[in-house]
Amino acid sequence: MHSAERLDSGHLPPPPPPPPPSPGRNIPFIGKLKPFYLLSILVLLSAISFSISKTDQFKKFFFLRSNLLNPTVQKQISRNPIYTAPYCVLWMAPFLSGGGYSSEAWSYILALHDYSMNKNPIFNLKIEQHGDLENLEFWEGLPLDMRNLAIELYHRECKLNETVVVCHSEPGAWYPPLFDTLPCPPIGYGHFKAVVGRTMFETDRVNDEHVKRCNLLDFVWVPTDFHVKTFTESGVDPLKIVKIVQPVDLDFFDPVKYEALDLGSLGNSVMGSFSNGEKFVFLSIFKWEYRKGWDSLLRSYLKEFSGGDDVVLYLLTNPYHSDRDFGNKIVEYVEKLDLEEPKDGWARVYVIDEHIAQVDMPRLYKAANAFVLPSRGEGWGRPIVEAMAMTLPVIATNWSGPTEFMTEDNSYPLPVDSMSEVTEGPFKGHLWAEPSVNKLQMLMRHVMGNHEEAKARGKQARDDMMSRFSPKVVAGIVSDHIEHIIDHTQ
Ligand SMILES: *[C@@H]1O[C@H](CO)[C@@H](O)[C@H](O)[C@H]1NC(C)=O
Ligand SMILES: *[C@@H]1O[C@H](CO)[C@@H](O)[C@H](O)[C@H]1NC(C)=O
């Protein structure tokens, strides 16, 4: 799927679950999830006193409930010839949250689904919402074919002992969960053919609780060599760690297919005065969190440019445990900097804080001349990859996830000044990277002044995405590994 990391999950346990959906809204897993989870607690409790027979009942219920709930769909599915594969992959992820894990999970599901149309893998795919909250706005912004696919895959039927479970979420959501969510695997370990965890972190290490949780699984999939290193060094069993890169939908993020969005009508002016002349547009996309380096970005941009420069910076952002008042936050931040307002005024900064539907994201990238994200640490960096697929020249920090795909031929890797300590949140005490403010200034000016070079790197970016991260390539990697797991477990 095609999301920016606008509501990335995976750092803090989500807030308490939302109220039940209003009647008449059609969101597939809501409403079934909650009672089911309560039921699972009840059954697990009673399983302690009544031992195995209750657990068996529960297992039956778990894999039958969707059919009980929806006999019509079940009839349709049993006529579907695709249904003959002997094994199942139950992919559990926050499909309905719209965050980073959500969009990543969607990208795999779409890739694997397409792949299964041509090859005949030995497994069927089933999906289940898990690990984060449902976001109705996100669900309604999805293309209809994706929503239909979600419902179809949700209703598929699997047998416990023939199922490989993929827990695609932060390890706190894995069994037993540290917060209120349907756990993954749903009934603990030992019932399934195998259990795989897919996770990632943005700092230089993995904390002990998460290491312990990783080591309970059969395999841990991480997206980059950076993570193979940090997970191994933190104590996750190296034999369990497998690098599985992330796909990007190159058909969807294809610049030749789109007209640019009219950014002027979307953004709110925060700094600088209005100008409707020719402009060089820098775009950045992030949720409002210190990790994303929005402070470094503003500092570099406002130091380098002024109102006299034919340039504008658009920030697409949304709240992350914060309110929406980004304009004031920016102005306050700039007031505290020891920066003099240039004689010809501040360079222009606009904030877009409204929800941009998935289907419009390519048009947003299309409206920019360059993408910039001086983040302190990234798991993967979806907006970076999407911008690269859209042939934009990209400036992003040369550390953590993006080192998997950024080179000096396909982008502008931003050098790191130093490592700094994370001072708050669950990763307090870990290290991440401080991007160089001076080099960021130079790179932004450089990209603006070297059109042909920047264009060539953007083109190389899309070529590299095509050869390494196309859905077909990545689905092949995932599929091969799942078949390997099935062949090598009894
Ligand atoms: C799973 O269990 C069923 C019976 O419950 C059995 O018929 C089947 O062979 C088992 N499959 C595997 C892969 O062990
Ligand atoms: C980016 O980091 C890698 C090490 O991860 C290093 O080899 C490379 O020279 C760096 N590139 C730039 C432009 O700083």
List keywords for this structure.
single chain; 38% helix; 490 residues; seven-stranded mixed β-sheet; alpha/beta; Rossmann fold; transmembrane; transmembrane helix; Glycosyltransferase; membrane; binds 2-acetamido-2-deoxy-beta-D-glucopyranose; globular; 15 strands; six-stranded parallel β-sheet; disordered N terminus; 2 domains
CATH topology title of the largest domain: Rossmann fold
Give the topology string: H per helix, E per strand: HHHEHEHHEEHEHEEEHEHEHEHEEEEHHH
Quantity of strands, as a count: 15
Strand fraction: 15-25%
Q: Name the ligand types.
A: 2-acetamido-2-deoxy-beta-D-glucopyranose
User: How does CATH name the architecture of the largest domain?
Assistant: 3-Layer(aba) Sandwich
Low-confidence sequence ranges: 1-83
User: Terminal Cα separation, in Å?
Assistant: 33 Å
Q: Spatial order of the strands in the main sheet?
A: 7-10-9-8-11-12-13
Number of helices: 15
Helix content: 25-40%
Q: What structural class results from the helix and strand content?
A: alpha/beta
Overall CATH class of the largest domain = Alpha Beta
Rg over CA atoms, rounded to whole Å, is: 23 Å
Average pLDDT reading: 84
Structural domain count: 2
Q: Report on the biggest sheet.
A: 7 strands, mixed
Shape: globular
How would you explain this protein's 3D organization?
The chain has 490 residues and is of the alpha/beta class. It has 2 domains: 33-247, Rossmann fold (3-Layer(aba) Sandwich), CATH 3.40.50; 255-469, Rossmann fold, CATH 3.40.50. 38% of the residues lie in helices and 16% in strands. It is built from 15 helices and 15 strands. It has helices at residues 33-50, 52-69, 71-78, 100-118, 136-141, 144-154, 208-215, 225-234, 294-304, 326-336, 361-366, 382-389, 437-449, 451-469, 471-488; strands at 87-93, 123-129, 163-168, 194-198, 219-222, 241-243, 268-271, 280-287, 311-318, 348-352, 370-373, 394-397, 412-414, 416-421, 431-435. Strands 7-10-9-8-11-12-13 form a 7-stranded mixed sheet, with helices on both faces. Strands 2-1-3-4-5-6 form a 6-stranded parallel sheet. A two-stranded antiparallel sheet has the order 14-15. Helix 2 packs across helix 3 (71-78) and helix 9 (294-304) packs across helix 13 (437-449). The protein is globular. The two termini are 33 Å apart.
